[in-house]
Amino acid sequence: MKRVVIEGGISRDHLVTAPLGAIFDQPGGPGLYASIAAAATGRALSGGDPTTLAVELWANLPMADLDIRAELERRGVDLSHCVDEQALPNLWILNSAEGRRIVNTAVQGGYELNESDTFTERTNPSVDSAAINRSATILRSSPRQALTDSIDETQVLVDPDQREVAARGWEYFAALATSTTVFTPSRLQLSQLGPDVIAVANELRHRTGVSVVARLDAEGSLVLPAQGGQWRVWAQDVEVVDTTGAGDTHAGALAAALAYPSLTIRSDVPRLVQATIVATCVVAHNLKGLGMTSLAPNFSLTRHALDAIFLEGN
């Protein structure tokens, strides 16, 4: 059985989406969205076979949060590597046409308005030699440092930490490159390094020698395999209700598709491009509802849906 290891945090979110309204106390966080997407993608690719792909979540997830644990287990996510060390953070996630803000529900210093709002640091377990030695496909959300073990045949995807990108710039990516096989930066993270995000994505591949799948919002994904070439993958006429967790969903689905042993979406493009087609299809489906509600456990990847994903490049 192939394994996908998700290293990422969990939170409880109040989702406020203009002009639709709000839903409160929703399970959220990169670890949740990515692991749910990975599990759903694995089942969809295997025709529902639960023995093809196993998804492990490495996160701080208190035993008291029974609803989140039950939801993840219902979707086939292995929680045996989660730790119970701290209460989950509670966040406001505010979405509008002007952009997105994530705000801690706990006010800082007694003030309602505080532009220096910071998030309480949460400790999540880091993947270790045991995970690496099992040749798992690993997705690391917002890591601060590289893995210390040699990754050898292990695939390691990194969704960068925008705070680290802001503080350390190119040096942050250089430090992670030694234990990374695919960087999955967002448009925002790329824009922290320069105004032309396409040029920055290409520069990231050039500087590190690592494959890049750049998530460019409505423009889809730019896929830059380490071996060379450039492809753009996107979906058209997508119904968008809520974008919360879209990037994490994409990363989780991408990891699962790369881990899947017999991925044959398109025989004329590299495996990384095929996996991005799958991830794009999964995200297009997830955007139709609030939070994680659209990605049901019985989610399926139809040939019609996959063929509707646009691809250009060489």
From TrEMBL:
Classify the source by domain of life: Bacteria
What name goes with this protein? PfkB family carbohydrate kinase
- According to its UniProt record, what is one Pfam family this protein matches? PfkB
List the keywords (alphabetical).
Kinase, Transferase
GO molecular function term, any single one: kinase activity
PANTHER family from the entry? RIBOKINASE, SUGAR KINASE
| InterPro entries attached to this UniProt entry | Carboh/pur_kinase_PfkB_CS, PfkB_dom, Ribokinase-like
Q: PROSITE patterns per the record?
A: PFKB_KINASES_2
- Its source organism is Jonesiaceae bacterium BS-20
Question: Would the keyword Oxidoreductase be found if you checked this record's keyword annotation?
Answer: no
What residues does the Carbohydrate kinase PfkB domain cover?
Answer: 67-259
Q: Does the keyword Cytoplasm apply?
A: no
- What Gene3D superfamilies does the record tag this protein with? 3.40.1190.20
